[in-house]
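We modelled the chain as a single entity of 693 amino acids. Its sequence is:
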Amino acid sequence: MTKGTVFAYSEALQSDGRDLYDAFAMLAEDAGYGKYLQTHAADWRKTIVELLHLLITAMGRNAPPDPILSDEQFPPGSPGALGRLCADTFKNHGIAFHHCLGLVKLLRPPFFDAAHVSAGADEQERATLAAILRVFDKFEMGLAAEWHRLELSQCNRDLRAAKHFILLEKRRYYTIFHRMIEPAFVVDNHSVLCDVNQAFEDFFAVKGRDIIGRHCSEVLDADLCAVCDLEHDLEGGSSFSGVELTLTVRGQQRTGLLAGTYLGGLSDDLSMSIMVFQDITEKKRIEKALVASEEKYRSLVENMPDVTWRADVDGNLLFASHNLKTVCGYTPAEFYQRGRFKDVHADDLERVRTAYRALFAEQQAFDIRYRFRRKDGDWVWLHDRAVAVTEKEGSRYADGVFADVTELKRVEDELERHRSKLEELVEARTAELRCANELLRQEIRERRQVEEELRRLTQSLARSNTDLEQFAHVVSHDLREPLMLIVAFTDRLLQRYGTDLDARGMEYLQRVFRSARRLEGMVDELLQLSRISSRGLQVESFDLGDLLNEVVENLEERIRQVRGRVEVGKLLAIEGDRVMVGQLFQNVICNALKYRKDDVEPLVIVEGRLLDNDFIEVTVEDNGIGFDEKYLDRIFIPFERLECGNKYEGTGIGLATCEKIVGHHGGMITARSKPGIGTTFVIRLPRRHPGGK
């Protein structure tokens, strides 16, 4: 049966599960879920293919998938992980949980039909059926757990936002009186001044300590009470606004609007009101802000998914949000009549009452789960929370929230049932890890052997390079003396016997002289290159700008001959071999002057900047003939010259010498160029050399 099921599922997988999807789509259409497949068909097809992979894997090892459901431990590739992925996907599509779960349950029949499970199945077939059931059960549990986690996370975010908003509102209402820029004062129901703000003192040129306790008509204009009928409004506990009046303040007529608000009663015979004197524009802005704030607060409370409540010390509900009906089945009015704990399960009731009493008696946080019977008779698990007790006017009450956590409780119970199996799985994974560690140690031993062989090869290569450099030095040194003789005697022949030769002989002798001179220059540069390779660095600190100016002075005659110009920008000080660095920039600048255009006066611009990694970057930019950057890797090879005809003299060693100098200093050199536009050499040198003092 297992092999047959695997074969059937493998065939379905080869067709991307089209037959399974078609059967699933028909079931969904019959169940009224067809509209959820029209726009999300690709995701459902992908889910079917992933389920096929999981089922084939489960059948292949003849064992159920990993029974791990917690958010932190869903292993990749498990049915629970696929369920979480589906929850994330379809919740983002806006599908309701019960619709999504209904569609998921409709996935089972096509897979069981494909497995060809008969009514009279033998033991192996029943085991296969059980394995398939476990895959779907854990897939659905992963879906439910992730969905609940997402819902709970959103609830917690909304709750934190609401608490933060309420805290800000309290702070704002506490400080608004003393920080408002308009003159304001508080009076009791007998029109006696109880408090004034700083703006009031500044506006009326009085001190609060001198006027508190006096009748407002003694301090303000006597016409004020007559105009606004202040005492009548206060006695009725009402408020007024928009009363325009003119007051004489410090000998000046001031016109404004007076607004008054009843603050509430502190006792049976004492109440207070606040009065604000302001202009029309500011009044409208404040009124609009207050209305918006109240609407925002009300919207937050009414739209929170959890039920918000307020109850007194005896547990009598004073307020419950309208979504109480969704969670408990009761309207707030019905719930007020039934009492706070009437529908709590008998086994949980005493525990709930004890925790609630501790909230008021010891200020201990009320955070508890209990069973609750809904109006329709179903039992649900509620998570009820309250953290603080408020006392006002001699009454004490608590504000809190509770949410339906039935599904979360079911998942937690399921996790507990599978804990022992999880421990077995951990032990198996630990054994696999030990084996993997042993393989890793073997690989490390083999890698160390390879590294040792590489070290030996590197040492051998270093010795070979040293021998080659010594050979180049000896050869160039031994060639120098005979070449000097050839050049000298050829020059004498030209001077003394040149007139005795015919034109052809004179040409031959001149060609010999030029070739000898060129070979002499090549040997000099080769000898110079070998000296750089063998010579140690004489590290010192020097100003790169001063060095570049000296180089330009040394090249002054050559620059004048080509009618060129070299501009040196601001450069910093570095540590290195001053002679070598000078030779480096002399070679680069000479290279720029050599490869110039016929009809353009050569211009060389040298600039520098400090990089973040404490390197100096110097650019040497010219307007010469340039070159194609595909040949960039050739210009630093000794004796390599790009195709330029015989127009430009040179040996091809100058840039190789530059690269060698830069390498000795721990830097790098490269170039950017375009044919006919010019070339920019980029040289990076460390600002402080490791061999410096």
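As a brief sanity check on the tokenised model: Residues 419-497 form the longest helix (79 residues). DSSP finds 24 helices and 17 strands in the chain.
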